[in-house]
Amino acid sequence: MYNYLFGPVPSRRLGMSLGVDLVPKKVCSLDCVYCEVGKTTELTTIRKEYIPFAELIAELDRYFAESSQDPDHITFSGYGEPTLNSRIGDIIAHIKQIKPHIPIAVLTNGTLLHDPEVRAELLGADVVLPSLDAATDAAFHRINRPHRDINLSRYIDGLVAFRREFKGKLWLEVFILPGYNDSAEELAEMKRIIGRITPDAVQLNTLDRPGTVPGLRTLSAEEMQRVISLLATDAIEIIAPAQKRTHSSGYRSDKENAILETIARRPCTIADLSTITGLHANEINKYLSVLENEGKVETVRQERGLFYQVKGR
Ligand code: SF4
């Protein structure tokens, strides 16, 4: 049992990915309407050692001592914004010392990259996947609901500066929500900003799991094509749909069954499922995406949040 590690999880972009959580649930500098792990409860820009560094290092060492197969990536993601952890650079350095051949990926919202210290701490990673969903202040505040100290133009400048300094792969994730950031004007401005950042890839994502705000919907295939043609940026990619994850070698039917058996007894939120099965919310989300796409589960919104149940029950 680990407190800060989860998976390996079959990831759409990173193969079998060992997740590392660097902040508790749910510490973040943003409170995105589409967030898969729920509403931000600690909206902050303060960097500190949110989890005990020595405990995390001990868990990593134990994991690699006990595990016979290396993951494709070690990925900092999880319940919040990993760059808020002030020891992220030391953690990267430790992993590079014990497992130099395993690439390290950092999923970040990128809002702290204006800080030269944060940029320097991420230089040891192999892949950094920052997100940027808005090109205008109005869309930024509507989708990402940032901490009051975060300023969009400084955020974008941070991404541009990091691209200049970072020698690894930079994959920019843009989350498109119909009615929020898909107007022609917003996308024209986004295109200009992407031209400044020059990431190695632009990965378009849209709603896969329901967000914290009711009424959000996913982008249709036609709408996605329109976004692609308006962005007209080289190296654009669409993040693969959930069904394809079942082809991943790491897709575990025992975990899928544990989730299905639990919700067959009673409808559960992701937090309930995490408590009952002991799986991380990110991992549960991956399996629910597949099950929902296969028509095996459905969601019902109730006062306490979004509940998952076996379809047709
Ligand atoms: S930045 Fe990521 S973790 Fe934070 S609220 Fe947005 S989607 Fe959730």
Automatic annotation (TrEMBL):
Domain (Radical SAM core): residue spans on this chain? 8-252
Give a single Pfam family match.
Answer: Radical_SAM
Highest taxon of the lineage: Bacteria
Looking up Gene3D superfamilies in the UniProt record yields: Aldolase class I (3.20.20.70), Winged helix-like DNA-binding domain superfamily/Winged helix DNA-binding domain (1.10.10.10)
Entry keywords, A to Z: 4Fe-4S, Iron, Iron-sulfur, Metal-binding, S-adenosyl-L-methionine
Cofactor(s) in the UniProt record: [4Fe-4S] cluster
Under which name does UniProt file this protein?
Radical SAM core domain-containing protein
Species per Swiss-Prot/TrEMBL record: Desulfofustis limnaeus
